[in-house]
Amino acid sequence: MSTHEVPRTLMVEGFRTRRSYGFGGLSKSATMIGAVILVADGLIAVQAPITLLFTLPVTGLLLALAAARRHGMPALAYYWAKVSWRRAAKVEATSYRRVLLPHPYALDLPGVGASSTLIKAHDPTTGRAVGVVHDRTSGRMTLTTLLAPGGSLMAPTGSVQSSLRTWSSVLDAMSTDEQVKGASVTIQITPGAGEALGDDVKVRKDPGAPKLARQIIDELVRTTPHATASVAPWMSVTVDPNASVNPPTDLAEQVAEALKVVDSLDLSGTGTDIMRRATDVDVRRLVRSAYDPDTFNARDREFEDLSWSECGPQAADDGWEEYSHDGGVSLSWVLREMPRRPIAYSVLLPLLAPGRFQRRITLSYRVLDPYEGEAVLEREISNAHQRAQATAEVKGRAKYSQRADAQRAEAAAAQAAGGSQVVDWTLMVTVTARSTAELPAARQELERAVKATRGIRMRPAYGAQAATFAAGLPLGYNPLVKD
Question: Is the pLDDT confidence value at 216 over 90?
Answer without folding.
Answer: no
